[in-house]
Inverse folding.
């Protein structure tokens, strides 16, 4: 079976937009922008990983946390605990809005770009 090229441009764009928001001075508005962009970045990251895993014949990794665990097993993710935390934070922020939670997710989002860059590099190398 011939491998198809996976388009990572949306994941790259989401990462770039997250970094753009993180570079701005922190206000309530930029914090909320960072949170929204963090949500997109995490969503696109695990879905891109899932596509690469499917290309490699992994069919059972459908849920986000399972995708992360399988990605770690295959060497795409070196710190699955952080990625699972990112997914938990993304889920919390997309379903609830509280000021204290917004601050927590913002500080989580600050850590995210480095992880996504490494994953993106590994995914591109595998594709």
């Amino acid at each position: 079976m011939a491998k198809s090229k996976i388009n990572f441009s949306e994941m790259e764009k989401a990462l770039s937009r997250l970094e753009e928001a993180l570079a701005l001075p922190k206000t309530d508005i930029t914090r909320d922008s960072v949170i929204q962009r963090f949500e997109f970045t995490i969503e696109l990251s695990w879905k891109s990983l899932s596509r690469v895993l499917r290309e490699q014949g992994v069919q059972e990794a459908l849920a986000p946390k399972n995708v992360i665990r399988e990605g770690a097993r295959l060497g795409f993710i070196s710190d699955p605990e952080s990625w699972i935390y990112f997914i938990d934070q993304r889920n919390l922020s997309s379903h609830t809005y509280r000021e204290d939670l917004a601050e927590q997710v913002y500080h989580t989002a600050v850590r995210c770009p480095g992880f996504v860059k490494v994953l993106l590099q590994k995914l591109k190398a595998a594709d």
